[in-house]
Specification:
327 residues, alpha/beta, Rossmann fold, Ubiquitin-like (UB roll), 3 domains, five-stranded mixed beta sheet, 10 helices, 11 strands, elongated
């Protein structure tokens, strides 16, 4: 990276710190001061600074257009749960997390070529084969200073997440990204002595760029965690990623059928992998456990379709269950 690019990134780092917690007129005044500094030093003679000024002016107009809200304390990372599970995404700034969110969820997250375009936690719903789960996009890290972390924010979200996924840009230095992100997991006590109670994985972005296949192979050798490659302009790749994230949650879908009737394939019950018929019966209604006589299953968990099983039988994904109850 050239000295000019390094100085530019450091300028963005300082700018992000200045603007991070400002709102309204205070935000606008600081933006004006930053733009004045750029022009005074004639930095806008170089294209990226010129684009930065346009972006800052747009953010300033956006902030000033917002109605003034009553002063209140809030946690921008306190996001209501939704769906059958939650996955938290985190990575360095500008690795493509927001673009990824827009590609696989129902959310439109602002995307920009500047550090910290995303400044608060963003949640979106991702749907795979009719099952919806939540993905939370955390603000990107700035790694100019070793002691600069937002580990508390990660910890806050991770404690209510079923999985934590690092987003690594195949067009950037993967060693630097892995080292820094792993340090954040350790500092947040999500990773202790190399182990974690959380499900951890990696999404490798920009897999369609020249040289990305070679970098992806290097990444596989450098980490013990599962790596999901993706290319935003490839629908097949995005659909495979949705499946991989769904599988990471370790949940399964089971369907029910009344005796003598067709299965209700449009109404899935989502339960943890390794669950039993007893878990399914209780999920449908707590009284079903006391009234249970036997169950019949159509699916991969039995030797043959319609096989009769008991409460301790472990069900598989997409099993169809018919419960017979006492009156």
């Amino acid at each position: 990276m050239s000295n000019r690019h390094t100085k530019y990134r450091f300028f963005l780092y300082k700018m992000a710190n200045k603007l991070r917690y400002l709102e309204g007129e205070d935000f606008a005044a600081e933006v004006d001061a930053i733009i004045e500094e750029i022009r005074r030093k004639k930095l806008d003679n170089w294209g990226p600074y010129e684009q930065l000024i346009k972006w800052l002016e747009g953010k300033k107009a956006e902030v000033l257009a917002k109605p003034k809200a009553k002063a209140r304390q809030y946690d921008p990372f306190e996001i209501p749960m939704s769906g059958v599970g939650r996955i938290a995404l985190f990575g360095l700034s500008n690795v493509g997390k927001s673009t990824l969110m827009n590609a696989i969820t129902n959310t439109e997250v602002e995307v920009g070529a500047f550090l910290h375009t995303t400044t608060i936690g963003q949640a979106g719903a991702c749907t795979y084969q009719g099952i919806t789960f939540q993905i939370v996009d955390l603000p990107g890290f700035l790694d100019f200073k070793e002691d600069w972390t937002i580990s508390k924010q990660i910890n806050r979200v991770a404690r209510t997440s079923d999985a934590v996924v690092m987003v690594v840009d195949l067009a950037m230095d993967i060693d630097r990204q892995l080292k820094f992100l792993t340090e954040q997991l350790v500092e947040a006590k999500i990773l202790v002595d190399g182990e974690s109670e959380y499900k951890i994985a990696i999404i490798a972005t920009k897999g369609d760029l020249p040289g990305s296949k070679e970098t992806y192979q290097e990444l596989l050798k450098k980490t013990k965690w599962t790596v999901y490659p993706t290319a935003y302009n490839n629908e097949e790749s995005l659909e495979q990623l949705k499946k991989s994230l769904f599988d990471l949650l370790k949940v399964i879908r089971v369907y029910t059928k009344p005796p003598g009737a067709k299965p209700k394939l449009d109404e899935a019950f989502v339960i943890r992998k390794g669950a039993t018929v007893a878990d399914v019966a209780e999920k449908i209604h707590t009284s079903f456990l006391k009234r249970f006589r036997y169950a019949k299953i159509w699916g991969t968990s039995t030797v043959h379709d319609g096989q009769q099983v008991g409460l301790d039988h472990i069900v598989h994904d997409k099993d169809v269950i018919e419960l017979t109850l006492s009156r």
